[in-house]
Amino acid sequence: MQLRGKQRLVAGVVAAAFVGAVTAGGVTLAQANTAAKAPVSSVQVVVGPESEPGQPSSARCPQGMGAINGGFQAISFYRSNGGDPYDGVTANAPFKDGKGWVAMLLAGKVRARAVCVPEDQAPQAAVGPVSEEDALSVARCPEGTKAIAGGYVRDTWYKNGYGASLDDITVNAPNDSGTGWAAKQFHGKTVARVLCS
Fold first, then answer.
1. Which DSSP helix (H) or strand (E) runs through 173?
2. What distance in Å separates the CA atoms of residue 40 and residue 114, rounded to the nearest whole number?
3. With 50 as the cut, is the pLDDT of residue 88 above it?
4. Where is pLDDT greater, at 28 or 156?
5. Is 20 in a helix, a strand, or coil?
6. Sign (positive or negative) of CA dihedral 76, 80, 82, 88
7. Of 43, 156, 42, 26, whose CA–CA distance to 91 is shortest?
8. Exposed e or buried b for every residue in 52-82, given b needs 16+ CB within 10 A?
9. What kind and span of H or E run contains 40?
């Protein structure tokens, strides 16, 4: 079966991630690279700035590139005096246009990261509707494409009178058919976002 450009790149990136996980188990990097043939030189990781407390950090891909995946690193994550989590991850998603990644904490500081590839190999981005409270938001891929990554951005987020989180994300995954991305909060409203190829 002949793979198109995006499919070859996605397969290569997935294979490269697999290599990193299993090299210690006996698969050599040279063997895996021969099998994967991933165009590693065209993949670039962009690290966003450290956010202010409770504010978003955005990792924007360079001109002519789009995000294929992303994530975040919490710089500070608030806890109660008893040590319980006081904070929450309120956004961890691709940009609406697919050209970067955004992350945000309820109270702490965060730094977003985006894995970027050339635009002609980058997936398409889609945004779901704002969910009802405690309900799913599903971002649907264009016809003929499948979800390869995704995330969510909160629309509302419950907290107590002291500012501590009373909410959490309970769903952040591709839907059962793989044609979209689903997100759901324990109490509040959320918006799913998906990258499709």
1. strand 169-174
2. 15
3. yes
4. 156
5. helix
6. negative
7. 156
8. eebebbbbbbeeebbbbbbebeeeebbeeee
9. none
| pLDDT value at 117 more than 80 | yes
Alpha-carbon torsion 165, 192, 128, 95, what sign?
positive
The closest alpha carbon to 55, from 97, 6, 115, 102, belongs to 102
Q: Residue 87: count other Cβ atoms within 10 Å of its Cβ.
A: 22
Q: Which of 32-41, 63-72, 121-130, 150-159 has the lowest mean pLDDT?
A: 32-41
Task: Read off the pLDDT of each residue in 127-138 and give the average, rounded to a whole number.
Answer: 98
Residue 187, token pair as written in the block: 């109490």
Tell me how crowded residue 41 is: count the other CB atoms within 10 A of its CB: 6
Percentage helix, strand, coil, to 5, in the chain? 20, 40, 45
Mean confidence (pLDDT) of the chain:
84
Distance, CA of 46 to CA of 60 (rounded, Å): 7
Q: What is the 3-state secondary structure (H, E, C) of 177-192?
A: CCCEEEEEECCCCEEE
